[in-house]
Every structure is written in structure tokens, then in C-alpha cells.
Amino acid sequence: MRWPGAQVFAAVAGVLSPAAGAAAELGDAEAGKLVFEKCKGCHQVGEGAESRIGPHLNGVFGRKAAGLEGFNYSKSLERAGNSGLEWHADTLSAYVENPRSFASGTRMSFPGLKDPQDRANVIAYLRKFSDNPRDIPEADPTAKGTDHSVDPGILAIQGDPEYGAYLSSECTTCHQIEGGDEGIPSIVFWPDEDFIIAMHAYKEKQRPHPVMQMIAGRLSNEEIAALAAYFKNPE
Amino acid sequence: MTLNRRTFLGTAGAVAAGLSAPAVLAQGKPRVVVVGGGAGGATAARYIAKDSKGEIDVTLIEPSRTYYTCFFSNLYLGGFQELSGIAHSYGTLAAGYGINVIHDWATGVDPDARTVSLAGGGFLPYDKLILSPGIDFVDGAVEGWDVSAQNKMPHAYKAGSQTELLKAQIMAMPEGGTFAMVAPPNPYRCPPGPYERVSMVAHVLKARNPAAKIIVADPKPKFSKMALFQEGWANHYEGMVDWIGEDFGGGNVSVDPDAMTVTIDGEETKVDVCNVIPAMKAGRIAEMAGVTDGNWAPVNAADMSSKANPDIYVLGDASQQGDMPKSGFSANSQAKVCANAVRGALTGSKVFPAKFSNTCWSLIGTNDGVKVGATYEATPEKIAKVDGFISQTGEDADLRKATYEESIGWYAGITSDMFG
Ligand SMILES: Cc1cc2nc3c(=O)[nH]c(=O)nc-3n(C[C@H](O)[C@H](O)[C@H](O)COP(=O)(O)OP(=O)(O)OC[C@H]3O[C@@H](n4cnc5c(N)ncnc54)[C@H](O)[C@@H]3O)c2cc1C
After folding, report:
1. What is the 3-state secondary structure (H, E, C) of chain A?
2. In the list B14, B117, B350, B354, which could disulfide-bond B123, CB 3.0-4.6 Å?
3. For residue range B172-196, what is the model confidence (pLDDT) as tens digits?
4. Does B399 contact A4 at a Cβ distance shorter than 8 Å?
5. Rounded-to-integer distance, Cα B300 and Cα B321, Å
6. Which segments of chain A have a pLDDT < 50?
7. B160 lines ligand 1 (CB under 6 A)
8. Which residues of chain B does A217 touch, with a Cβ-Cβ cutoff of 8 Å?
9. CA B227, B229, B231, B236: dihedral to nearest 10 degrees?
10. What is the mean pLDDT of residues B244-265?
């Protein structure tokens, strides 16, 4: 018998694929300034910006998640940062779309920007406050990257909770069914849509974490829906 | 989630009566007997009891009242865990899930009558028998050592008093003394286990006995997570660990437990502690049940049923299944596939396709955790690897710390998945 570690795989923590999706049009920074009004209650950006309820957003491009010295981040975001999450156009877009489904325990209590154009615009605006933005749409840190939203057809799949209960046994080796979250996050009582979006983000390797990318990578759309249906309200 | 929902009161109390009159206890319900309350057996018993909601009569035979996990037992040696932190009881399985927990040894299996006999007398009939007895050691595997020498040269490869003894010996080492390990040949339980142990021993010695030395005699040319361990040993414990692999005679070893000497490739060394981890085989009861072929018990990948007997299933370390390493994670994963299949066979519940996975975390030094893992599927021949990953050398300290913290979360997860 051979130990699986003998083979080295490329799914290293920290390797995100910013170019995973088609590079969309860069947003409109002017319009983004207006969108940023929604963020201003917590975040400052620009000259003299300071961290308040949320961290300041100067230089956010290329920064490791939870990477600002001295700011008290949630465990969840710290964990994501430590496993290799960096802020780029694609990851920012995914996060801003639905913060909680992207980083389960984030303190950013914001429902999310559902309109992709709003997201593109606000990200274009933020980019102006990061060092040396290069105006090459495909290149990091300006790449627009993947759209994190999941195909509505996938979200509409009715999961079979009985199958989900069986599949969930693979999850509960690490994630406690009672919901403890020491070292490993809790996955019970999630709204099913958040669950599905999160699992697809692992499947597409947008969320960093080698174990989760591997587990989600071989789950079919139906299986992810079944798990979401089960974990929404586990028996 | 409360346990009350799953409580079937009264069943546990019927255990004593069940022993003398098992057929009456069963009252026509299908009967599953599980031998061994470890990573495989406890999980299988719990899942069958939980998911069959009282339709199946589940009996778990396990001699110990307290199960000490081998996983994290190295962390106890390194001072990162208390012994009480790796101890688990069967109380919830009995009271919360209605499992008949019998603290005894299974001493034989009669596959024709479909009964298991117990050391304490009596026998238990079964419709399906699940064996998850872990490992025993191959006689004569290390010249000069047999199980009667385990109090002088402990194996500490079944956790509990052996682990405690090894720790006491490490603590009592004279200044500048020598710790020797005789590492096992493949296949054995927990491929990174011996090397995580070396790391933990080095961690303790570096703090209290920095002139001490560690020698590892290894019959293998290479080992699990080798690059990661060697990098870690160089970073944290420079010059302390001398690993002698197959190429340098590491497989040519004899020991003398009375003289406390180890002879490696003809060279005798006096040592202060000698941790002998001999070659392994399936726990003896598997052989008694007639399901072994050589040292291990071949199984069908789809449901973990024995290739020799369709009513007997073998889980975990004792099984010969294909590509999965012998780990607690693997045993737990196999148990859930098996539980689903056994329940389907006995009650007609839906049987879903087998999915297996494994991840093994190891601790190299303070906040320096690494991991390796893979997913697997059932093929007609074996459990076959699908995909995998391993930590990389040179990872930054934050990632290593996160990996260690994750292992603590995993430990809490798997032990509650086993014991409720
Ligand atoms: C030092 C060390 C570190 C490890 N670290 C990890 C790790 O980090 N992660 C990981 O996943 N795995 C780890 N493992 C491996 C893991 O402990 C085993 O692979 C796992 O316990 C196997 O489960 P099992 O059910 O096959 O056997 P066990 O868990 O050993 O359970 C077998 C049980 O059967 C009982 N039994 C045996 N014979 C009989 C009988 N005749 N009648 C009744 N009962 C019987 C025994 O008392 C025992 O309780 C480690 C192992 C060691 C030694």
C-alpha cells in the first residue's frame, strides 16, 4: 500500500486562480464611487483613511485576507487569509457579493451586492487606491476574473435530504454536527443558497483550502444540493 | 441538536439479560454485532443505531471501558495534550443510542452458526458481523523483542498505558541520553505516526535535555511526508535526529531489552529508551473468524464486506482494501460506507454509492502542523485513490499554525462522530 502523500499535487493552499474565469470588462470607477456610499458606514478609503468598524481599504489589492496589522478580524477571515486567500478583483467580487457565504464567520454584516455591475464598479473604484494599478484588464491586480455567482439552474436544484444525510457523514469527520467551530468552521443551519455558493466556490477553487477543494471537487451539483438541503436543518 | 432525540431508553439495561438469552432480546429484529470500539467499530455502531432508529439491534464488544485514541497520543508525548484529553468512554453510545455495549473480548467466531463467543462466557448471534479490531504485532518481527518485553521497550502503538510508560521513560532519560526507535515496515497503522512521534520526542528533549540524541532504525528507504519531517527536524531540532534508513542498514536490527541495547547493521548501541514498533497484522480475531489472507483481511470496496464471507465486514487497520492508508480517519470513513450498506441489507433502506476520504495531520513542532489527504472511490478491485494533496515544504508560519489548529478541530469532530 502506498501513502497518498507520495504524490505531490498542485492544489497547494494559497494558489488561487485569478484568471479562472473570463476577464470581464473593467467596471466604471466613477459609478463605483456612488456604490461605495453603501460601504462608507464601516470602511474608509483614500488619503488619510483609517480603520474603523471595518479595516481601511487602501492597498487592498494583493493583500492577504485579514492582512492589515492591528485590525481585529474574525477567526473565519483570518483562517481564510492563512490558507492563502488574497484580495484581487475576483476574490473581492466573490466576497462582496455575499460575504457570509464566502467567509462563514465574517464580522462584515452586509447582505452583499447582488448586481454584478455594481460590484465591478466598486472594485474599479477601490483599485484606484491600491499601489501601481496596471490598466491591463487581464493582469492581476486589475483582472476582473470570475463571476462568483452560481448558475440559477444549479441553485434551483432540489436536493434530496436523505442522500444529503448520507453524504454529510463525510463532512462530520471534521465538522461537528453539534456545530462546534474550534479550528474548523461550523456548517450546520446554513441557508441552503449560501451553502451551495460556498461549495461551488471550493469546487471552482475560488475559496482556498486544499481539503475542501478536494472534497467539493468531486461532488456533483445534485450532491451539493443534497448536502445543502440536509445541513439547512440537520436531523 | 440534543441527544434525547435519539435516545431509546431501556435498551442499555437489557444487556445483561441479552447475554444469557440473546434470541429473546432480539425479538426478530435484525442483529448486528460489532467487535472493537475504536475508530472503525464505534463509528459503525453509532451510525447503524442512529440511522436505523431502533430497527436494528446493535451490540458493541470492546474490552476497555476507556478508549485512548492513538491519534493525538504523540501530542501527549510532546506535552501538547493531556492523557485525559485523548480518553473517551462508551457512555453516550449506550445511553444515547441504545447500543448494547459489552466490555469483554471476542474470543471466536462461528461463521456457520453466525455467533461470536466471549471471553467471559456465552455467545452472541448475529445477522451481520463487523470486525474492527485494529492491529496486532507480527511475532518475531524484531529480533530480541516480543510482547512480553513491552514494559521495557514499549511500542506505544496501542494508546493508553503504553503511551504513558513511554512518556515516563522519556522524562526519566539521563542528560545527553539516547532515545531509539525501531520503525515498522509497510503496511502499518498511521504512516506518518512514527515520524510525528520523533518530532514530539525531539520537542520535549530540546526543552529539558538538549544534549540528548534520537536514533531511528527504519527498514524503509523513505517514509510518509519525509521531506516535510526532515525540513522540520532541521529547523526545530538541528542535529538531534539520526534517521537510519534501509540503505544504511536500518532494517537490520536486533534489540536486547534486558541490556537495553540496540544493534543496527552490526553496531551495538546502549540506549536509555527504546520504542519498538514491530511489523503489524490484523487484530487476531479477524484470523479467528477466517477472513484473513496472510496478515490482513481482504474486503470488497463497495461495502467493506469480507471477500471470504458476505456476512462479515472488516473495517479500518485490519482490512486490506486498496489505496487508503491505515488511519483513524480512513477507518471512520469506511465505517460510514459499511453502516449504510449493512442497514440497507437488513432493513431495505436506500444504499448510496461508496465515497471515502482521508486527511492525516501531523505536528512537527509548536504551531507547525502539516497534512496530507486524498479522496477515494470503490472499484471492483479495490478502494482506489481519486485525488489528493500534501502540505509543501517552505510554507509560511501562519499557514502551518492554521493547519495545526485545524487538526484540533478535526480531533473534536472525529471523536464526536465516533462516540456521540
Ligand atoms: C501514534 C499514532 C498516531 C496516530 N495518529 C493518527 C492521526 O493523526 N490521524 C489518524 O487518522 N489516525 C492516526 N492513527 C491511526 C489510528 O489510530 C488507527 O488507524 C485507527 O485507530 C484504526 O481504527 P480501527 O477501528 O481499525 O482500530 P482501533 O481504533 O485500534 O480499534 C480497535 C479496537 O478493537 C478492540 N479489540 C481488538 N480485538 C478485540 C477483540 N478480540 N474483542 C473485542 N475488542 C477487540 C481494541 O480494544 C480496540 O479498542 C495513529 C496511530 C498511532 C499509533
Report:
1. CCCHHHCCCCCCCCCCCCCCCCCCCCCCHHHHHHHHHHCCCCCCCCCCCCCCCCCCCCCCCCCECCCCCCCCCCHHHHHHHHCCCECCHHHHHHHHHCHHHHCCCCCCCCCCCCCHHHHHHHHHHHHCCCCCCCCCCCCCCCCCCCCCCCCHHHHCCCCCHHHHHHHHHHHCCCCCCCCCCCCCCCCCCCCHHHHHHHHHHHHCCCCCCHHHHHHHHCCCHHHHHHHHHHHCCCC
2. B117
3. 999 999 999 999 999 999 999 999 9
4. no
5. 7
6. 1-24, 132-147
7. no
8. 375, 387
9. 180
10. 97
CA distance B305 to B345: 12
Of B274, B272, B269, B277, the closest CA to residue B172 belongs to B272
> Domains (ranges, CATH) in chain A?
5-127 (1.10.760.10), 152-231 (1.10.760.10)
Q: Which of A11, A82, A169 sits opposite B336 (nearest CB)?
A: A169
Helix (H) or strand (E) holding B96: helix B91-97
Residue B358: exposure state from Cβ atoms within 10 A (0-12, 13-18, ≥19): buried
All CATH 3.50.50.60 domain ranges of chain B, comma separated, are 5-136+280-419, 139-276
Contact A188, A234 (CB under 8 A): yes
Q: Which of B80, B88, B189, B225 to mutate to test the pocket of ligand 1 (most atoms within 8 A of CB)?
A: B189
The amino acid at B279 = A
- Closest Cα to atom 17, ligand 1: which residue? B70
Largest CA-CA distance found in chain B, in angstroms, rounded:
66
Strand pairing report for B355-365 and B368-378: antiparallel
- B5-136+280-419 maps to CATH 3.50.50.60: yes
Q: How many CB pairs under 8 A join A and B?
A: 145
Q: Is the pLDDT of residue B20 over 50?
A: no
Alpha-helical regions (H) of B211-315: 226-236, 284-288
Q: Whole-angstrom Cα distance, residue A34 to residue A121?
A: 9
Are the Cβ atoms of A81 and B390 closer than 8 angstroms? no
**Helix (H) / strand (E) containing B129:** strand B128-131
Read off the pTM. Answer: 0.80
B96 within 8 A of B136, measured Cβ to Cβ: no
d(CA B328, CA B132) in angstroms, rounded, equals 11
State pLDDT tens for residues B68-117: 999 999 999 999 999 999 999 999 999 999 999 999 999 999 999 999 99
Q: Does the distance separating the beta carbons of A5 and B372 come in below 8 Å? A: yes
Half-sphere exposure of B85 (CA within 13 A, CB side): 14
CA B334 vs CA A28, B131, B202: distances in Å:
53, 12, 34
Separation of CA B70 and ligand 1 centre (Å): 6
Residue at B339: amino acid letter: A
Where is B194: in which H helix or E strand?
helix B193-208
Beta bridge partners of B378: B383
What is the C-alpha to C-alpha distance for residues B187 and B317, in angstroms, rounded to an integer?
A: 10
Give the CB-side neighbour count of residue A172, counting CA atoms within 13 A.
26
The amino acid at residue B288 is M
In eight-state DSSP terms, residue B53 is: T
> What single DSSP character describes residue B69?
P
Q: Is B254 helix (H, G, I), strand (E, B) or coil?
A: strand
Distance from C-alpha of B218 to C-alpha of B220, rounded to nearest angstrom: 5
Task: Output the CA torsion A55→A60→A62→A63 (10° steps).
Answer: -20
Query: B139-276 domain in CATH 3.50.50.60?
Result: yes
Q: In 3D, which of B153, B128, B160 has the Cα closest to residue B306?
A: B128
Q: Which three cell numbers stand for residue B381?
A: 478491485
